[in-house]
Structure formats: C-alpha cells, structure tokens
Amino acid sequence: MNERRLRIGELAELTGTTPRTIRYYEEIGLLPASEERAQGKRRLYADSDVERLQELIRLRDLLNLSLDELSQLVAAEAARAEIRREFAETEDADTRRELLDQALDHIATQLKLVRGRKKELERLERELTARQRRVRSRLREIDTEDAAA
C-alpha cells in the first residue's frame, strides 16, 4: 500500500504552520528532511511527518518551549526510542540495566523541562488567584458602602 505524499504547503496547512517554519525545523534537526527530495525537486512528506510536526507544535505550544528546549525534549525522546530498540534486542541483564539507567537520565531531562513550565504556571495561577481575591474584596467593600448609605 502506498503512503500518501504531501507537498510542503499541504503539510503546513494540515498542521497549522507555515512552509518557512517546516524548513527551519528541518534545518535545526527537529524535523527530518524529506527523504524523497532530489536536488531541485519538491519536498514530499509522509503521514509520519504530519504526526511528528503536530507533536512538535503541541509540545512547543503546551509547554511554551524555546527551540533549544524543544530540541532537548525531542533528542531525549529519540534516545529513549533507540534504548527501547536495544533493550528488546538483548537478554543480557547487565546491558538491560545499563540501558534502563540511560533511559532514566533522558526521562530526567524531559521532566526537568516539564516541571520548569509547571512551576511557571503554578506561579501565574497564584498571582491570578491573589488578583481575584483583591477584586472580590473591593466588590464587597463597595457593596458594604452601598448598604450603609
């Protein structure tokens, strides 16, 4: 079965981004360059590229990551995928233990990024909650003044 192939404009439209962003993501290694692109030919993308780009955009937007942080997150995930492959191919306990230790290091990198954003969101939530309390307090003061008048 042939997988559909998309031009860069179609990929951009499907993912809500721009061809320029896609090219840039390829340049910095976040998105693999199109495999079927011969010199001077159009870039062609597969469904797997759509999924990868959608995930990159979701992580970038959800976590408000810089491109460097997004690269770190993606590199850790790629390393974990390779570790899973190697783990499945070996029965040696020492090798498996070493691979699992490596996986833990990559997960720690990912958690550090996610927890950093979580702390920022929690700080923002506290600030907004405090503002909400102040506004409600002022409303009560106004209501009390109106009732006394």
Structure description:
There is one protein chain. The protein has 5 helices and 2 strands; from the N terminus they run E-H-H-E-H-H-H. The model has no long low-confidence stretch (mean pLDDT 89). It has helices at 8-15, 19-27, 47-63, 67-89, 93-148; strands at residues 6-7, 44-45. Helix 4 (67-89) runs antiparallel to helix 5 (93-148). The longest helix is centred in the C-terminal third of the chain and has 56 residues, at 93-148. The protein has a two-stranded antiparallel sheet. It is mainly α and 149 residues long.
- Tell me the total number of β-strands: 2
Total count of helical runs of at least 4 residues? 5
Helix content: over 70%
Percentage of residues in DSSP E strands: under 5%
What is the subunit organization of this protein? single chain
The H/E string reads EHHEHHH
> What is the residue-mean pLDDT, rounded to a whole number?
89
How do the strands of the widest beta sheet line up side by side? 1-2
Report the uncertain regions.
none
Largest sheet: 2 strands, antiparallel
Which outline best applies? flat
Structural class of the secondary structure composition? mainly alpha
Q: How far do the termini sit from each other?
A: 80 Å
- Based on CA atoms alone, the radius of gyration comes out at 24 Å
What keyword list fits this structure?
149 residues, mainly alpha, two-stranded antiparallel sheet
Q: What's the quick description here?
A:
The protein is mainly α. It has five helices and two strands.
Topology summary:
Blueprint: E1 6-7, H1 8-15, H2 19-27, E2 44-45, H3 47-63, H4 67-89, H5 93-148
